[in-house]
Design a protein that fits this description.
With 287 residues, the chain is of the alpha/beta class. The protein has eleven helices and nine strands.
């Protein structure tokens, strides 16, 4: 069980096994995210572990993992954790938060888990304004099951179920989760970031910190959609996948701070909707 003593441990007390950084809460269990592929999950797991350690909230965090590639997070970060049935992470998180309102409850989900089978759960959690936070990695494909089309796949994207490219007439348009959740009054913080550059990783860190702050201030539901790469599912090298993310995917999914009700809801439209990233000294997300 996490305890306050470990929360206060000096950064140097954390072992360097498995490449984890001093001060993080990685368990040292080796990542199994398509080794050597450049998958974004590993770096995002490290980032989240570091944020939890930085805030000193290890003993308060309960992490809810999904089904899919992202399920490994429950064994990679040394906090209390539970793995939910497929798509049900926000429903499980709701039960935990309502039973233990003093805990900081975080779901970590991919686009297949959240935007496909789990869309009803995340929508209703947002509608109700549940005091939970979701870190949502969108790589536009079902990774673990073999690279099938996801709700977020781009038009023309080749997958194992769309070998000739996604056709809008057959499969509809890409699903923009952040834009939809922004319109719900129960959401307190909604942002879309990316992990394709050092600057964008820094912004992703700030966004997750802000999302957790929204929960700890009892403001409502918070979500950070993080655009990442799946080189194996995309059948690309890591370098080509990162270029594809920058040149193509971010064109479909613009990086943006959509809503910020932390402290107050005095955004650009009076309801916390603040528009494109601004006011960050030029350090905002970049394609």
């Amino acid at each position: 069980m996490p305890d306050e003593k470990k929360d206060r441990e000096a950064p140097g007390a954390v072992q360097e096994a498995s490449g984890k950084k001093p001060g993080s809460l990685l368990t040292g269990v080796a990542f199994t995210y398509c080794p050597g592929s450049g998958c974004t999950h590993g770096s995002l797991n490290r980032l989240l572990a570091g944020i939890i350690g930085e805030l000193g909230i290890r003993s308060k965090v309960i992490l809810v993992g999904p089904v899919g590639c992202a399920e490994g997070i429950v064994k990679y970060i040394d906090v209390d954790a539970v793995e939910a049935p497929h798509g049900r992470a926000t429903a499980v998180a709701t039960g935990i938060k309502r039973s233990l309102p003093d805990r900081v409850v975080i779901t970590y989900q991919g686009d297949g888990d959240l935007a496909a089978i789990g869309i009803a759960e995340v929508m209703h959690a947002a509608i109700r304004g549940e005091r939970i936070s979701t870190v949502f990695l969108n790589n536009t494909v079902f990774g673990m099951t073999g690279g099938q089309m996801a709700p977020t796949s781009l038009i023309g994207q080749r997958t194992t179920t769309t070998p000739f490219g996604r056709d809008a007439q057959l499969s509809g348009m890409p699903f923009h989760v952040a834009e939809i959740l922004t319109r719900l009054p129960g959401t307190a913080y909604v942002a879309r970031t990316a992990m394709n550059s050092t600057a964008n990783v820094a912004v992703t860190r700030e966004a997750i910190l802000r999302a957790l702050e929204a929960q700890m201030q009892d403001r409502g539901f918070s979500i950070v959609e993080v655009m990442g790469i799946c080189p194996v599912g995309w059948k690309m090298t890591p370098r080509d996948a990162n270029t594809h993310l920058s040149d193509q995917i971010i064109g479909e999914y613009p990086l943006q701070l959509f809503k910020d009700c932390v402290g107050s809801c005095d955004g650009g439209t009076g309801d916390g909707q603040v528009g494109p990233w601004t006011g960050d000294g030029g350090r905002g997300p970049q394609g």
